[in-house]
């Protein structure tokens, strides 16, 4: 029996096409200016390629997890902050196909993350456990998955600072030097807390998540709807002290993945709370993102990168933003606005599929999407694949077929 993911994401079962179908050729710059949206044929081809790439990665990993590539080869770790993305891709493949291969692999890699459940020095326990244990519990109901995810949520909640109304993002629990720093990235951790409230009926998890989202909305989003990656808050009051960058180009520039975190994260907070202020924020951030995209709809690593038009892109910011825009399109009540965000997401996905797949590249590189940038300023995995970009690409391909609102 297929799982009901009403509380997670609604992903229909689709027929898995057989045989090899050639992809459309990469587009020229002129063709990109009139970029078409994703077609169903292209989407199914992309899903086939993603499945093949995942199978290859599983065969190479052992008990490690892929993070990002260097020179086309996966860098691996024991889970870090990204292990949940890989486990989540395996669950998404199982949900789509019902194939026991994906179920076995999803269970295996989910189980390998269990040791993080009591690590109260890691705010990213949310994104480690949400796509793995929580999604796994919906796809394959086992009390082990549920109880482990709930323990992770309880651990994550220890990092909530009541006076400031936010979750401590950096440093060891209680580290006073880093207690005030909050990154927009942390929005993606909140789903685990909302899920914990749904499972237990205890609103303490959801209240903390919504408070953190509200602090992020006020402190990170600029008046023009661009965003800071990092803000420093007063732990006693939650008052903003300053905004700055870590992975972006400059304090007042807009790091593309940070803007995408905001689009995606606020759309999910709206899904969980129904508070229109979060939908409005997600849409305004998406509008800014769309208005500043280059002709091929895949953003540069920073919207003010000094080397534009020859600077590095970040395909992971594109895939994440596309998935967030589809979440907006599925929920916003205005049909015209819904069509706008769906069309933008469709153009991003079309470009990623035509121009940024690793398929056919010299050296047969690992991963699904090339053109991702992990940390440009230190030269880490620039124009490479990364697992979060691949996850949001797969999620967006599946969301494209959804008909909900």
Structural class designation: mainly alpha
**How large a portion of the residues is in β-strands, by DSSP E?**
5-15%
Low-confidence stretches are 1-32
Number of strands: 9
Description:
The chain has 405 residues and is mainly α. The protein has a domain at 78-158. Helix content is 48%, strand content 9%. It has 13 helices and 9 strands. It has helices at 29-32, 40-61, 83-97, 100-111, 125-139, 143-157, 190-200, 204-220, 256-273, 276-291, 315-331, 335-355, 387-399; strands spanning 65-70, 73-77, 160-161, 166-167, 181-183, 230-233, 240-244, 372-375, 380-384. A hairpin with a 6-residue loop joins strand 6 (230-233) and strand 7 (240-244). The protein is globular, with a radius of gyration of 20 Å.
What's the helix and strand layout?
Blueprint lengths: L28 H4 L7 H22 L3 E6 L2 E5 L5 H15 L2 H12 L13 H15 L3 H15 L2 E2 L4 E2 L13 E3 L6 H11 L3 H17 L9 E4 L6 E5 L11 H18 L2 H16 L23 H17 L3 H21 L16 E4 L4 E5 L2 H13 L6
Antiparallel strand pairs: 1-2, 3-4, 5-6, 6-7, 8-9
Compact description:
With 405 residues, the protein is mainly α. It has helices at 29-32, 40-61, 83-97, 100-111, 125-139, 143-157, 190-200, 204-220, 256-273, 276-291, 315-331, 335-355, 387-399, and strands spanning 65-70, 73-77, 160-161, 166-167, 181-183, 230-233, 240-244, 372-375, 380-384. It contains 13 helices and 9 strands.
